[in-house]
Structures are given as C-alpha cells and as structure tokens.
TrEMBL record:
<dbReference type="GO" id="GO:0046872">
    <property type="term" value="F:metal ion binding"/>
</dbReference>
<dbReference type="Pfam" id="PF14815">
    <property type="entry name" value="NUDIX_4"/>
</dbReference>
<keyword id="KW-0227">DNA damage</keyword>
<dbReference type="InterPro" id="IPR003651">
    <property type="entry name" value="Endonuclease3_FeS-loop_motif"/>
</dbReference>
<dbReference type="GO" id="GO:0006284">
    <property type="term" value="P:base-excision repair"/>
</dbReference>
<dbReference type="GO" id="GO:0035485">
    <property type="term" value="F:adenine/guanine mispair binding"/>
</dbReference>
<dbReference type="InterPro" id="IPR005760">
    <property type="entry name" value="A/G_AdeGlyc_MutY"/>
</dbReference>
<dbReference type="GO" id="GO:0051539">
    <property type="term" value="F:4 iron, 4 sulfur cluster binding"/>
</dbReference>
<feature type="domain" description="HhH-GPD">
    <location>
        <begin position="47"/>
        <end position="196"/>
    </location>
</feature>
<keyword id="KW-0378">Hydrolase</keyword>
<dbReference type="GO" id="GO:0000701">
    <property type="term" value="F:purine-specific mismatch base pair DNA N-glycosylase activity"/>
</dbReference>
<dbReference type="InterPro" id="IPR004036">
    <property type="entry name" value="Endonuclease-III-like_CS2"/>
</dbReference>
<keyword id="KW-0408">Iron</keyword>
<dbReference type="GO" id="GO:0034039">
    <property type="term" value="F:8-oxo-7,8-dihydroguanine DNA N-glycosylase activity"/>
</dbReference>
<comment type="function">
    <text>Adenine glycosylase active on G-A mispairs. MutY also corrects error-prone DNA synthesis past GO lesions which are due to the oxidatively damaged form of guanine: 7,8-dihydro-8-oxoguanine (8-oxo-dGTP).</text>
</comment>
<keyword id="KW-0479">Metal-binding</keyword>
<comment type="similarity">
    <text>Belongs to the Nth/MutY family.</text>
</comment>
DNA sequence: TAAGCGTGGAA
DNA sequence: TTTCCAAGCTT
C-alpha cells in the first residue's frame, strides 16, 4: 500500500530545493519531455558509489569531455581510463566501467538496456545502480536504495533493527513510497534529503519536509538511527616503495594485477605489504632513504610506507616494471597512496 | 555471506 | 589524532 503523504511532501521539497548537478537535466528540460542521457546517468551513478558529490564533480567533467559517449569510452585505452580515474578510489569500478561500455557496444548496439532487470546483468551495475538508471534515465518505477535511503527509512519508520540485517525491511519500506510518476525525481529527492537534511549526525529535523510523519523524530531517536553493528578495528601494515628515476628522467613503475588492491593501477615497485616491511628492490642500485614515510589509510587497514629513491643508469634492466618516459608521466595518474610516495620521495632526487 | 575494496572531508 | 562515513559491487 503506497503512502501519498511523504512522497508528495518529498517531491514538493525536491522541486523547490534540488541542487544543480552536471549529470542532472534541469526542470525546464524535464517539462519539455527531454530525458537525461543514459550514459551520463550511468557514469555519474558509478562514480557516486560510496563517493561524495563533491569528489565526483571534476571527474565527471573530465570523463565526459574526453569520452562523450559509451562508444568512445568502449574504444578507449585501458591505461588512459585507469589514469583518469586515479584518485577517485575503488578502482574495480573503473575496470568494470570499461567492461560495461564494451558489452553495451558489442551486445546492445551501443545503447543501454532500459529495464532494471537487464541493467543488473552488466558489469559494475548492482541493485542500487540498476534501479537508479532505470528510474532516472528510463522512468521505470524502480526503488533506489542507498545509504541515504536506508537512513531516511530507518528514521521515518523508527526501524530499530541494525544494519546490514535491516536492509530487506528498509528496502520494502522504500518500495512502498516509490511513486509511479517521476520515480527518478523521487529517488533523487530521498537521496538529497539524506545528504543535506537527514544527515548521519545532527539531522536538521526542524526544516525537514518529513518531520510530521517521522516516527523517530516523534520518539527522539533520530540521531541513533539507523543502528549499525560495530566495526572491526583496522590493523597496520608496512611496506617499502622504490622510486627509481633513470638519467633521462623516466620513472620505473609497474602495472598492478587486475585483481586486488589498486588493481590495474600503476604503482612503485615493492614487496607486498604485511606485518613488517620487506626489502624488495626491483634492481640493484644505490637506494637511499629520504627519511620520510607515507601514511595512508585504506578501507580495511592503515599503511606505513617507507621510501627508497635512486638515480638509475640508462642501461638499467629492472626485473619488474617498466620505465615511463618523463613526458608521459603524470603523478595525477597514480592512485593517491602512490602519488603521496612521489610527492615525498621526488624532492630527494632533485639535484641541489 | 562476510570480507575486500579508496579517498577525502567533517566532527 | 582518530573515527566516521559517502548516491555499492563482487566474490
């Protein structure tokens, strides 16, 4: 049974307060019957997975400027796409983005499937993204459930079950609110509400369009919802990164394997990170310690990365990796932890 | 199914 | 400084 009240209040609020975003079509275009570009919706939704709007904005502009459509992206060089994604994190998204673009071109004639069910079969598109594309780009009455929606539902209906066990219950509640008209706007309205008013800490209940029907607000439990199971502590791992620069300015880097941490990205040679740092120079050289250490935190562990730098001869023949010519090397094309290593180690190589 | 997978901003 | 956490997906 669908509840008109909260849905209507939410859409009214959205129409009055929706923030402009590069991947959104404005209200004028919507009224003219112009639908958002599925490519732009897909690209933005993948970038937005576990990532803030502020972090995505510039990446979205660079990607669409360089690859304006799914065909262009499908034809792109893998390394170029990974370098353009560098710094945004969760690099499996970039690998799956390319896979998905190539499947859309090879198996769907370069057009995205228009149903949630079909979208779910594409690489990198899960329940959330499939619903988002189906609702926003194609008008399907699909229910979008992300962290914002979970939080809004948990508070609106005062759900005490902790996440992630509460997910099915919260999904069902969200389905009950999804309207047949403008399901895409509704989805974005709930997410905008969660991002700006129904925030994780100190929600702005006083200006919330759903303050009247909100059960948690009435009970005073809004700040405690949704409940979550405690998280595991992060261990600390250690490693060493070797920054080797040849006499002509080329840098010794290696492409990491597609699976695992920073998969498919360029990085500095070094042993696998573990309980203790292991020496593993890619070739014999006068490796020096610049006396600085990279500290970086990943999703599930802290990393302390020692550095070694060396000037390498033109005939250097490393066992691993390859030299990237100075003209092609861009620190911005490295994942952040590797760029930090460059920022700290590179000054030690510049002649005084 | 629970774990693996990035980063940067906010408090 | 540390912790939390953001428009999740894959295996």
């Amino acid at each position: 049974m669908r509840d008109e009240g909260p849905s209507r209040a939410l859409l009214d609020w959205y129409d009055a307060h929706a923030r402009a975003m590069p991947w959104r079509t404005g209200p004028a275009a919507r009224k003219a019957g112009i639908r958002p570009d599925p490519y732009a919706v897909w690209l933005s939704e993948v970038m937005l997975q576990q990532t803030t709007v502020a972090a995505v904005r510039d990446y979205f502009h660079r990607f669409t400027a360089r690859w304006p459509g799914v065909g262009a992206l499908a034809a792109a060089n893998d390394g170029d796409v990974m370098a353009e994604w560098a710094g945004l994190g969760y690099y499996a998204r970039a690998r799956n983005l390319l896979k998905c673009a190539r499947v859309v071109v090879a198996e769907h004639g370069g057009r995205f499937p228009e149903t949630r069910a079909a979208l779910l079969n594409l690489p990198g598109i899960g329940p959330y993204t499939a619903s988002a594309i189906a609702a926003i780009a194609f008008g399907e009455q699909a229910t979008v459930v992300d962290g914002n929606v979970e939080r809004v539902m948990a508070r609106l209906f005062a759900v005490e079950t902790p996440l992630p066990a509460a997910k099915p219950e919260l999904t069902a509640l969200a389905e009950g609110l999804t309207p047949p008209d403008r399901p895409g706007c509704h989805a974005q309205a709930v997410m905008d509400l969660g991002a700006t008013i129904c925030t994780p800490k100190s929600p702005a209940c006083g200006i919330c369009p759903l303050r009247a029907p909100c059960r948690a607000r009435a009970l005073g439990t809004q700040a405690d919802l949704p409940r979550k199971l405690p998280k595991k502590p992060k261990p600390t791992r250690h490693g060493i990164a070797y920054l080797g620069r040849r006499a002509d300015g080329a840098w010794l880097l290696e492409r990491r394997p597609d699976k695992g941490l920073l998969g498919g990205m360029l990085g500095w040679p070094g042993a696998e990170w573990g309980d203790a740092a292991q020496e593993a120079p890619p070739l014999a050289a006068n490796w020096r310690d610049p006396g600085a250490e990279v500290r970086h935190t990943f999703t599930h562990f802290h990393l302390r990365l020692a550095l070694r730098v060396a000037d390498l001869p033109m005939d250097a023949a490393p066992a691993r990796g390859r030299f990237i010519p100075a003209q092609e090397f861009r620190p911005s094309g490295l994942p952040t932890v590797m760029r930090k290593a460059f920022d700290l180690g590179q000054p030690a190589l510049v002649p005084a």
